[in-house]
Amino acid sequence: MIDQYREEEKSKSGGLTYAKGKSLDDPTLDDVSRKLLEQSGGTSIFDPVLCEIAYRWFSPPGGLILDPFAGGSVRGIVASKLGRQYIGHELRQEQVDANRAQGSELCGDDEHPPAWICGDSRNIDTTCADVEADMVFSCPPYADLEVYSDDPKDLSTMKYSDFRAVYFEIIKKACDRLKPDSFACFVVGEVRDKKGNYIDFVGDTVQAFRDAGLHYYNEAILITCVGSLPIRAGKQFSSGRKLGKTHQNILVFVKGSGKKAADRCGAVDVDESMFDGIEAVGGDEG
Ligand SMILES: C[S@@+](CC[C@H](N)C(=O)[O-])C[C@H]1O[C@@H](n2cnc3c(N)ncnc32)[C@H](O)[C@@H]1O
């Protein structure tokens, strides 16, 4: 579904704002997408198109987004451009400083410029005690796949049993700040342990939200760039029968009722012309 929207976006008929897939020399590139591309230097940043879709589908206009693992500035800037208030919680001061500089440059005149709080999200219950969020949205550390710092409070430095306990605690505390009948969305990917077995990070994320009292509501698959995978995949397949992975999991949860949460988000504009020539087949999940 996400891919369909990417194609839709490329053809500029879907009303999306961000420009995934365009290059810096494209004269039609909008200013914000240009800045994001320049800042990333061509390396991966959080996908602004995915971000826009998630906000449009799962948060109400003018709503407040709480992000317990902020990382870079994309989720804050896109929220601001879509009229949502974003609060990102991030451990590393240098990342927060860079985000704030970019936030003031790109969103200084917006109605709801993004805000970043620097600190350990284990304390989000006190730092955000007065926050009532309309959506929880994040892309957490994928265990120790990427290590962000040498701070022992950084989840990516922890052994998985410790990581899991703190991860569950932070998800619970973030979800406690979520209003009833609201959605949460985490973008995650599976991770292998040192023996090459999957740790079930995706399953643990689902469990963490269930323990926090939310229902598991949607899963979408984000097809990611193949990059150098074809070069690596052959060897890892022949030696260990490990399949190459080119996707991430977009997990959506709901606190309370999905129907009421959808009502709170309001109508989603769907360009019906994209279904032209497609005949309905099969059943409906309802
Ligand atoms: C997956 S990264 C985000 C990178 C991602 N591609 C992005 O920008 O969206 C997760 C972030 O969590 C932060 N983090 C790790 N432990 C944390 C903690 N205890 N409290 C708050 N943030 C933490 C890391 O510093 C890192 O920036």
Molecular structure report:
The protein has a seven-stranded mixed beta sheet with strand order 3-2-1-4-5-7-6, with helices on both faces. It is built from ten helices and seven strands. Helix 3 crosses helix 4 (74-81), helix 4 (74-81) runs parallel beside helix 5 and helix 7 runs parallel beside helix 8 (201-211). It has helices at 2-10, 31-40, 48-58, 74-81, 93-107, 124-127, 160-176, 201-211, 229-240, 258-265; strands spanning 64-67, 85-90, 115-118, 133-138, 178-188, 215-223, 247-255. The two termini are 17 Å apart. Mean pLDDT is 88; it is low at 1-14. The protein is 37% helix and 17% strand. With 286 residues, the chain is α/β, with parallel strands linked by helices. The site of S-adenosylmethionine (SAM) has 20 residues, from strand 2.
